[in-house]
Amino acid sequence: DIAKRSVMSFTESHADIASVAYEQQEYIGSSANTLENYSAFNEGLSALNRNLSDELDKAQSKINELTLDLQETLSSLSIDPLTKISNRKAFMEDLEAVIEVGQSKKISTVLIMIDVDNFKYINEEHGHLAGDKILYFLAQTVKSMIRSVDKIYRYGGEEFAVVLSRCDERKAFEIADKLREKIEKSNLLYSGKSVYITISIGVTIHQT
Q1: How far apart are CA 90 and CA 50, in angstroms?
Q2: pLDDT tens readout for residues 137-196
Q3: Active site residue 158
Q4: Which helix or strand (DSSP H or E) is residue 95 part of?
Q5: CA 134, CA 138: separation in Å to the nearest integer?
Q6: Which residue, of 104, 106, 129, 195, has the greatest Cβ tally within 10 A?
Q7: CB–CB of 194/187 below 8 Å?
Q8: 3-state class (DSSP) for residue 195
Q9: Which residue among 93, 158, 174, 184 is the active-site one?
Q10: Closest CA to 134 of 59, 208, 193, 75
């Protein structure tokens, strides 16, 4: 839809600008060499230039609008709609970029994988809506506990991936343990019932 609107907008803008330019050419070609006509010619040409400027401004405004639409659309393709964090597609793209950078720079990158324990039981016991809320809670909790330069992704189902840049092994295990403890001690309620959740975490380091 964005591509279609882009082509249509470009065609309309091109036609409007070309029309003004054609009028300018016609005006220049039909002017007579008298003082009165020369004065009228200048006034007319100024008006045409203003029209051309207006058309260019409108075209630029449309370009800005379509660019914003495109950026929002591309962003939505990389966001998990349930948890509001990056999805598996974004994870694969970002990880590829991190490894590529690591080929020329010595950067220690940590990958943390998180899995919600007994998630099937939680869904059966409390319902899928409760399960959805738990996934959102988990994603946002982890996001709040890592640095802005680090990222969390919903890898699939109840699985999450966290990428920590420039992080050593000791610090990585500290962060993983804090995440595990925070989730375990969370007092969650759904429809008046307590929901107890725990997570399993694995940590690995990619040293280039």
Answers
A1: 46
A2: 999 999 999 999 999 999 999 999 999 988 888 999 999 999 999 999 998 999 888 999
A3: yes
A4: helix 88-102
A5: 6
A6: 195
A7: yes
A8: strand
A9: 158
A10: 193
pLDDT digits (tens, 9 = 90+) for 27-57: 666 655 555 566 666 676 677 677 777 777 7
Place of tokens 């725990």: 198
Tokens read off for 181: 């403890």
Backbone conformation region of residue 152, classed left if phi is above 0, alpha if psi is from -120 to 50, else beta: beta
Structure tokens at 123: 């869904």
Nearest to 197 by CA among 186, 208, 189: 186
Pull the structure tokens for residue 98. 């991190």
Closest by alpha carbon to 163, among 183, 182, 180, 143? 143
Q: Tell me, yes or no, if the pTM score tops 0.90.
A: no
Q: What tokens were used for 5?
A: 């609107």
Q: Which tokens in the block code for residue 135? A: 């996934």
